[in-house]
Amino acid sequence: MSKERRNHTAIIVTHSRVFVLIAVRVGDITKFEQALSTHSSRFLTDATYTLILRLRHNVIKTALRTISLAYSRIKLKDVSLKLKLDSEEDAEYVVAKAIRDGVIEARLDRSGGWMVSKEVNDIYSTSEPQEAFHQRISFCLKLHNESLEAMRFPLNQHSKELASAEAARERERELASEILTGDDNDGDDDDLGDAF
Question: Where is the composition biased (Acidic residues) (predicted)?
């Protein structure tokens, strides 16, 4: 197979999978089924048909998440129509599983046949964002202060170094004067020891 032929085949395979990807991300079951039926021969030759069929659950979850955000309360019959499910019982099962898995925040009203979405609290009405922002700002200020402190030249460090240098010079003078006075007094080398 030539390189051009392989590139063309790769483009066709990618093109067919893009439609499935878009349908999964958007949660559009109609587009998913359309892409599946249009490109089923390609998926069968690639041996990915069963894998792509399993993505239908992800499409349903995404669509259900969109429905729960859009409607505060919706009949299970309407959910089954939107999700292209066979019956209300299937919709009830799918919704119950999504609630249990944490995909959506809702509850089932079985007596009325409703899916009731929980009210989404406005996160900005609480003090949580303010506390998180305060924590980040405190960290940045602490980091800034530590950086400034690390870059600062130590105060009076030079005077300590001058004092220690002066003391070292003084010791050298004393040693030099002792050596000179020691040479003048003795004259013999008896105190050098037996080694010399």
Answer: 181-196
